[in-house]
Specification:
Shape: globular
CATH topology of one domain: OB fold (Dihydrolipoamide Acetyltransferase, E2P)
CATH class of one domain: Mainly Beta
Distance between the termini: 13 Å
Largest sheet: 6 strands, antiparallel
C-alpha cells in the first residue's frame, strides 16, 4: 500500500497519469474498497472479470476496470473475427500488458457481430475507458438466460473485495 501511495504522489508531482474516472455509460459507478477501481450499475459481470452490457439480443463485452488495473498498461489486444462463435467461459482473444498476457473469456454465448477495431491501433483505450471506448466485442447472444447467471454490480464489488483480500 505504501508503494501505491508513493507512486501516486510521484505521478501527481510529475503531472502524469489520468485523473478522470472511467466513463460509465451514464450509470452511477460504485468504487471498490481499494479506492481506484469501479463497477457500473446496469452491467453484468463474470468471475473472470469481463462485463457485458445487454442491449436487446446484442451484448457489448469488455474487461472490467478491476481487471485492467491488475494488468497494468495494455499494449496489445488479440481481437477475434466478426462472425466467429463464442461460448460462455471460452476464450475469444487475449490482452497483453507490460506485466502479462491474459485470455479474454466470453461472459455469454453467441456470434460476434462487431469488433472494436480501434483497439488494434490504441490498445490503451482499455485502460483509459474500459466501459465505454475500450469495449472489445459485440455478441448476438444465443441464450439470454445466461445473463441471469452473471453478477450484478453489487455482487461483483463483493467478489472483487473478497478476491483481493485473499491475495
Amino acid at each position: 500500500m505504501a508503494l501505491r501511495v508513493w507512486a501516486s504522489q510521484a505521478a501527481n508531482t510529475l503531472r502524469i497519469g489520468c485523473k478522470r474516472p472511467p466513463l460509465s455509460f451514464g450509470f452511477p459507478t460504485i468504487p471498490l474498497s481499494r479506492g481506484f477501481a469501479h463497477v457500473i450499475e446496469g452491467l453484468k459481470y463474470a468471475e473472470s472479470h469481463e462485463w457485458v452490457k445487454p442491449e436487446g439480443e446484442v451484448g457489448t463485452v469488455g474487461i472490467t476496470h478491476h481487471a485492467q488495473d491488475h494488468l497494468g498498461e495494455v499494449v496489445f489486444v488479440d481481437l477475434p473475427e466478426v462472425g466467429a462463435a463464442v461460448s460462455k467461459g471460452g476464450s475469444f482473444g487475449a490482452v497483453e500488458s507490460v506485466k502479462a498476457t491474459s485470455d479474454i473469456n466470453a461472459p455469454v454465448s453467441g456470434e460476434i457481430v462487431e469488433v472494436n477495431s480501434k483497439l488494434s491501433e490504441t490498445p490503451g483505450l482499455i485502460n483509459g475507458s474500459p466501459y465505454e471506448e475500450g469495449w472489445i466485442i459485440k455478441v448476438r447472444m444465443h441464450d439470454l438466460l445466461e445473463m441471469d447467471k452473471l453478477m450484478n454490480a453489487e455482487q461483483y464489488t463483493r467478489f472483487c473485495e473478497e478476491e483481493d483480500a485473499s491475495h
